[in-house]
Amino acid sequence: MASNNNKLPAEILSYIFLLARSEILPFSNRKVPWTVGCVCRFWRNVALSEPRLWASIRVDFCPWSEAEAENIHQMLSNSLERSSGRPLYIHMHQSYGSTGPSALPIYLALTRSIESWYSLRLSGCVSQTAFGAVDHVPSKGTILSSLRELHLDFQNYRGDTSFKDHPIVRILFQGRRHTPGLHTISFSAIEHIYLSNECLRSLGWRQLEELRVDNRTLHAEPRVLALLKECANLEVLSIPLRLSLARLPPSYNKLRMAYLRSLKLRMRACTIADVSICSYLVLPALEWLDVEFVRIEAGHMFDSIIGMVERSQCSLKHLSVESLALMDASVERLIRLAPKCTSLSLQGCVFSHLFNVITCDDTFLPRLQHLGIRSSATNIRAPLGVVLSAIRARSSTLQSVELELCTESEDFESRDELAMFGRLGITMYVQEYSPEPHRYELDLFRTLGNLAHSWSKYGSLAAVDSTGQRIMTENAKTLHEALELVDHLKMNHHVSLEEVQSAMLGTVREIRGFNTTSNSLFVEYLEAEYHFKERMEGMTYLETFNDVSSPVIIYGDLSPLALLSRLSKIPPS
Prior knowledge:
Layout: H1 10-19, H2 32-36, H3 41-48, H4 51-54, E1 56-61, H5 66-82, E2 88-94, H6 104-111, E3 117-125, E4 149-155, H7 167-172, E5 184-187, H8 191-194, H9 197-202, E6 210-213, H10 222-230, E7 236-242, E8 255-256, E9 262-268, E10 281-282, E11 288-294, H11 302-312, E12 318-327, H12 329-336, E13 343-350, H13 352-360, E14 370-374, H14 384-393, E15 400-406, H15 412-423, E16 427-433, H16 439-458, H17 469-488, E17 495-496, H18 497-516, H19 524-530, H20 532-535, H21 540-544, E18 553-554, H22 560-568
Parallel strand pairs: 1-2, 2-3, 3-4, 4-5, 5-6, 6-7, 7-9, 8-10, 9-11, 11-12, 12-13, 13-14, 14-15, 15-16
Antiparallel strand pairs: 17-18
Helix pairs in contact: 5-6, 11-12, 13-14, 14-15, 16-17, 16-18
């Protein structure tokens, strides 16, 4: 940094310093201005001349010594002075244990600048003994006139309401007139407290534009809908749901959120299928939909989301589906409801069928500008050539593509084609990964198990229109591709009969059942195209093994014919 030629322009360096305040860094962002100021005189001058850098303040309250408290108080006063009246981003973290009287001057210094608070984050422990002398901080009549963002991230034992004893929280609970400009709230952990009647009456939900719930589980109970009903002007909603609304009658009134543009759902497994808060929402302005599935194996969970989109008659422009173990026909159904979609991101087991539809059907995603495909989480993926055919078909509209490629892929010709798309003006983001040992085999068994579970419990993979025929036709292609995966799988390690049975037996049994019943979902034209009966021939022995822990080991090729050939030589017990 001694030479002027090696110096970045002050404007760029200042911008880098501002980015360094991010919470994702491994060191505390409150030390950024102090740290960069120690590098050289030039950096120090840049840091001192950027008030926004000093406007992000974090204080970790804990049992301090008097010397530590005095040092923190001086640093805080210095930061407040150098922020030069800029909007303040305040983060107060409360550690376990009483802070004692030494914290009072620091709290008072913070509250003297309360009219400049733009963003407030409160985190940490909220036990009754944690506040100590700061309980004397005045709150009555205080107005946070500049506050726009509130983030509550307390941790405590379930049922503890002592977070309301926090001196700053007391201000918030005095009513919405004390936070006239608040438009963003996020919270986590003790959601049953935040959704209490007192909280609904006190906080200014109706003025909110953005609500983010980051806790691990949030049950979709009536009070959640009551909260959303209060948020009449909400534009952005991020909420995790455990798909269970058993306490709500089917006739529960639909909730229309006229201004909601962005919805992110983190959906967990449930005991009641096809029921979620989505069943009660009408979102006519929705443009951005992100859905993440956590430990949900079957695509039937999509039904309530599809119903919400159909009912809302919205114009989706961005669609993201993450961590869905099996991308069956439900995903295609959802995409077809978004003809104006310009951005599509998929993470999980995506079969070739979806890309073939993009290639062959001009009405499917005709305005696509960004395509993101991530499959490393499953190691089961469509061939790269099929994906590139879809990209080629949308090259006139695509602007960017994000792909994950397996380092062990042998599709070198398709890899060479990636450079061609760059010359066409499409920005390509390519990330390579190495599959974990045994991961491919385990993912295949899991996928087949998902097929079996969906088939046996719901009659089809993606129920259902009035006849079931169209959906079954689409999912027949999904099953066909799953069986092709088995055909081409080469096992490098032992696979027990128990694993094979658990993965395939349910699917095989259900296919037989559908082929023999009068209301067969596998009608003759499907059988003529896919030959499911023929491909399942000889699997009788799979059903005759009583000892599922039999030490039979399968080596080498695991194609259905090779597998059945081996098993058929073993007499049933």
